[in-house]
């Protein structure tokens, strides 16, 4: 079978669904190829900082998470070695909290997917090869010829890879594979039917020698928790019960009882382990992030460690920025038809805008992990408690970064009407 599409997005995670929604907002219906038989919900929760909420506002769905979850106002950081606790207030800028809203990953994915036209996501569809047919030499515009695992061939004017750290599209572009940071993380959810008793607007972290753990309330009954350690974890068992036991009896045995109690009552179905991967910043500087009408977004472009909580946030930014630029590639009648040559130029503009933002977040995330988890020496403690927490974190993160607004289909049509009236 052979079909033709205006835009094909590979990957139905946060980046892929948000990009499809951004394109829908400007009048372009995309096809999302997801290799899994259903929505991927790996990872129990995700922190949405103000920059992510601004992106969700542009996508028209921010109210669906802000009405359910509360932003964090304070964080407590405890040095496990001596019991000293430091309080960090997230503060506000222009009345908007700097603190993130921690939401269920499933809820975010379902919210994004629920806004898409039925049939947008094609499940159990694995991309196996990419070929291109040139259209215009001036801007290296081309049609992407995609082959799927079931033999289906798709001709796409635009191809966007959003399939994570092992992206086929990123590899086709020539981007180097992400590298292991030398650390790994275990995450999970704990549900207390009678309520957990913690303030929903406060988070807790515990800093040990080469380890960092913490928990964040999601609702009155649910807590998201994590533990990262200086281990690649290649020989670690991935069975949830064994991961839980490893935390209780080894990794966090000296951590406060409040944390161990939460892990003890964890929902085993939510416990997962992952190596923490990132892409070298210079790979984004010197490599091609696009070729003609093909590009990447989210972890396919800029995988980073989770120490600033910006992986999903930056993916949402990518979606809105790409949507803004792609609006310039529409035919004058605005019926979702893309001018291929203009799409190539739009993608170049998107890459130019996102490259250095992504590089900064990769470097900031790695620095954050190094400072917070690197040990209890006096120099490291000074860098962490005085320099990073009080001065650098907000500057590195830029939590109020605004990725812009999307023009809706109706506003685009009104603009065309005005142009025609003038003509």
TrEMBL record:
MF terms in GO: FAD binding; monooxygenase activity
Keyword ATP-binding set for record: no
Domain called FAD-binding: residue spans: 6-330
Keyword Oxidoreductase in record: yes
Keywords noted in UniProt: Monooxygenase, Oxidoreductase
Name recorded for this polypeptide: FAD-binding domain-containing protein
Highest taxon of the lineage: Eukaryota
Pfam families noted in UniProt: FAD_binding_3
InterPro entries: FAD-bd (IPR002938), FAD/NAD-bd_sf (IPR036188), MOase (IPR044560)
Family (UniProt): Belongs to the 3-hydroxybenzoate 6-hydroxylase family.
């Amino acid at each position: 079978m052979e079909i033709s599409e205006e835009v094909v997005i590979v990957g139905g995670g946060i980046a892929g669904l948000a990009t499809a929604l951004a394109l829908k907002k400007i009048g372009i219906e995309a096809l999302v190829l997801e290799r899994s038989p259903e929505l991927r919900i790996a990872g129990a929760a995700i922190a949405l900082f103000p920059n992510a909420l601004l992106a969700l506002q542009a996508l028209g769905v921010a109210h669906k998470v802000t009405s359910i979850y509360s932003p964090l106002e304070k964080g407590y950081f405890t040095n496990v070695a001596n019991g000293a606790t430091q309080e960090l207030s997230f503060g506000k800028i222009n009345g908007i909290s700097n603190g993130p809203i921690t939401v269920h990953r499933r809820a975010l994915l379902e919210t994004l997917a629920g806004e898409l036209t039925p049939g947008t996501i094609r499940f159990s569809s694995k991309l196996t090869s990419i070929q291109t047919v040139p259209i215009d030499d001036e801007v290296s515009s081309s049609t992407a010829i995609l082959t799927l695992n079931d033999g289906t061939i798709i001709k796409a004017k635009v191809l966007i890879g959003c399939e994570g750290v092992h992206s086929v599209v990123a590899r086709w572009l020539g981007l180097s594979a992400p590298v292991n940071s030398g650390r790994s993380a275990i995450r999970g959810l704990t549900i207390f039917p009678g309520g957990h008793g913690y303030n929903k607007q406060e988070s807790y972290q515990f800093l040990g020698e080469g380890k960092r753990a913490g928990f964040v309330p999601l609702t009155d009954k649910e807590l998201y928790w994590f533990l990262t350690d200086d281990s690649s974890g290649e020989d670690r068992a991935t069975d949830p019960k064994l991961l839980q036991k490893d935390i209780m009896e080894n990794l966090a045995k000296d951590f406060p009882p409040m944390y161990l109690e939460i892990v003890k009552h964890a929902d085993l179905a939510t416990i997962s382990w992952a190596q923490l991967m990132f892409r070298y910043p210079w790979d984004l500087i010197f490599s091609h992030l696009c070729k003609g009408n093909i590009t990447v977004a989210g972890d396919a472009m800029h995988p980073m460690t989770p120490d600033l909580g910006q992986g999903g946030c930056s993916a949402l930014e990518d979606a809105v920025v790409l949507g803004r630029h792609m609006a310039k590639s529409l035919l004058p009648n605005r019926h979702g038809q893309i001018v291929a040559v203009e799409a190539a130029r739009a993608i170049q503009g998107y890459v130019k805008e996102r490259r250095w933002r992504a590089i900064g977040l990769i470097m900031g995330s790695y620095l954050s992990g190094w400072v917070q988890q690197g040990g209890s020496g006096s120099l490291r403690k000074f860098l962490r408690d005085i320099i990073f927490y009080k001065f650098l974190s907000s500057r590195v993160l830029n939590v109020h970064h605004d990725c812009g607004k999307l023009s809706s289909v109706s506003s685009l049509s009104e603009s065309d009407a005005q142009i025609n009236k003038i003509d």
